[in-house]
Amino acid sequence: MEALGMIETRGLVALIEAGDAAVKAANVRMVGWEKIGSGLVTVLFRGEVAACRAACDAAAAAAQKVGELVAVHVIPQPHPDLEGKLPISLPETLNRGKR
Question: For the chain, which has fewer Cβ within 10 Å, the N-terminal or C-terminal residue?
Answer without folding.
Answer: C
